[in-house]
Amino acid sequence: MRSTSERMGMRRLWRLGLTVVVGVASLAIVGCGSSSSSSGTTSSSKIVNGGTATILWTAGGIDSLDPGYWYYQDDYSDIMEPTQRQLYSFTEQGTYPVPDLATSLPVISDGGKTLTIHLKSGIHYSPPLQSKTVTSSDIKYAMERCFLASVANGYAEAYYPKIVGAPPAPVNKLPNITGLETPNPTTLIIKTSVPVGVLDDSNALALPCTTPVPEYYAAKYDKGATSTYGEHEVFTGPYMIQGAGSGTIPASGYTSGRIMILVRNPSWQRSTDPLRAAHFNEIVFKGEYDITIAARQTLTGSNMISGDYAAPPTSILQQGVTGSEKSQFIIAPSDGNRYISLNTTIPPLNNIDVRKAIAAVIDKNALRLTRGGPTLGTVATHYIPPGMPGFDQAGGDAGPGYNFDTNPNGDLTLAEQYMKMAGYKTGKYTGPALLTIADNEPPASNTALAVQSELATLGFKLIFREVPHATVLSKFCLVPKAKVAICPTLGWGKDFYDSQSMLDPVFNGKNIVPVGNTNTSQVNNPQLNAQMNAAEEITNPAQRAIAWGKIDDELTAGAYAVPWLWDNEVSFASKNVHLQVWAFNGNAPDVTNSYLTKG
């Protein structure tokens, strides 16, 4: 999943002892409040089946109602897992896909180029299609529509392009992907031109593009410049949006950024779905909250779970992890990174020595303090985070050892040397100001200000704009024609436990698209593209780790961005909530499996 968002998109065991030490001058907590996947153990006699959970949004919540668009952490936690099912999914702390709509893992044949998948029968849609069941044709259509420009999917071209007949880029007309065969209603056959590692191991078949969408119902909504299927969506999970049974989701059930109410889906059968406990009767999301108010209400109130932010404000985090509220927190690795994106198509960022200078001058420890200190993660030395395949091969904690990336406190002298190598005789930048777009809410806004200050020591002047988070992505950093030079507040989380998902969507030139462009640095290096394309075909896990680790090393050498944090997810809930988190989704709250407790 993932994603360039304040809370990560898409998702190990923490490698350090988890003790809490609070510094006097700042919140430099070198550990975690809790490393468990749940906020305590609860006997079955204290589990409450029912009730209403409330989550407060501070950054706009989900990005879209359309499963074809979902690619961000909040999309996965707030709407995908509660309301929809995919071919495969993950258990709460699982690192390998397990069957969801499928009956078993794919049967692999033809040297890894043919996958045969059998579906569970009798899975009904929510009203108004409660009499209809999920078929293989619905999965085929769902995957095909992910290539529609009107759906604006962010990963189909990264993971599905080698399915026979798949288009190489978004198209305006629904493609007929001949490599998706449906010989009967419960069998899907996927044929690829070459072996594809993340299809053979089912990882890429756990993504939202395998959420069933019935063509006979959705096709009329997929016409036009922007699909409106999300406004009329039908559901397969334990919950549905309130009022969606009419065929149109009403404003009372969902209003973007303000409200979303999930109620039980009467078509869902617990016996067919062992992955979702669905304890709550209702889940309510409320938006437009200040982050401090939202965090404090969640901790002191009842029936509440933390919302669309990776961590609470520093003061609340400090109180929580050292005081009586400690048991309400879960702090765990997000399996993601934070980075400063440098647009390589805009001078002087097209000069590798300038990019190395920027990497050298960045004080990563100072940036980490803007988010709360060591409790919020480990200083990053490359892209693949700890615990992911390829991490050790890319250099582990120390990284590959390039001099511009080894000093976590920044090195102005070295940075000036690189600027001189780039042709700036004084070691300072003297060109025009660079457009820089950042989030306008803390902690991201504080990070951006720190980046601005550090770049100023090299003479960089910025056209510095802080805008709402959703606007950072939808109108600027993910839109190449906006010509943003620097995006200092981006992050990326894994899509699944394979490091292709950490590197390919962000740096492969084939993924540069007009809208929803996750390759924000616009890296289009033919040699690197070829290496990534070749690594995609490797099916042996150990060999994949070696290949992607080497690619990580070379990307770090190119200084296409500045990775500065492998961050932690801080989740918390009210005292009467037994909080669960979902490792696949970066250890964000798992509202589908959390529950209320008695007494």
Task: State which percent range the strand residues make up.
Answer: 15-25%
Structural shape: globular
Query: How confident overall, as mean pLDDT?
Result: 92
| Rg on CA atoms, Å | 23 Å
CATH architecture of one domain: Roll
At the first level of CATH, the class of one domain is Alpha Beta
Question: Helices, strands, pairings?
Answer:
Layout: E1 47-48, E2 52-56, H1 73-83, E3 88-89, E4 98-99, E5 107-109, E6 114-118, H2 136-145, H3 156-159, E7 180-184, E8 187-191, H4 197-200, H5 215-218, E9 239-241, E10 254-255, E11 259-264, E12 282-286, H6 291-300, E13 304-305, H7 314-322, E14 329-333, E15 336-342, H8 352-361, H9 364-369, E16 377-379, H10 412-421, E17 434-439, H11 444-456, E18 462-467, H12 469-477, E19 486-493, H13 500-507, H14 526-536, H15 541-557, E20 561-572, E21 577-578, E22 581-582, E23 588-589, E24 595-597
Parallel strand pairs: 2-12, 2-13, 17-18
Antiparallel strand pairs: 1-24, 3-4, 5-6, 6-8, 7-8, 9-11, 10-11, 11-12, 14-20, 15-19, 15-20, 16-20, 21-24, 22-23
Helix pairs in contact: 8-10, 14-15
Could you explain the architecture of this structure?
The protein has 599 residues and is an alpha+beta fold. Among the domains are: 185 residues, Periplasmic binding protein-like II (D-Maltodextrin-Binding Protein, domain 2); 233 residues, Dipeptide-binding Protein, domain 3, CATH 3.10.105. The protein is built from 15 helices and 24 strands. The strands form seven sheets. Strands 2, 9, 10, 11, 12 and 13 form a six-stranded mixed β-sheet that branches. The longest helix has 17 residues. The protein is globular and about 75 Å long. It starts with 46 loop residues before the first strand and ends with a strand. About 4% of the residues have low confidence.
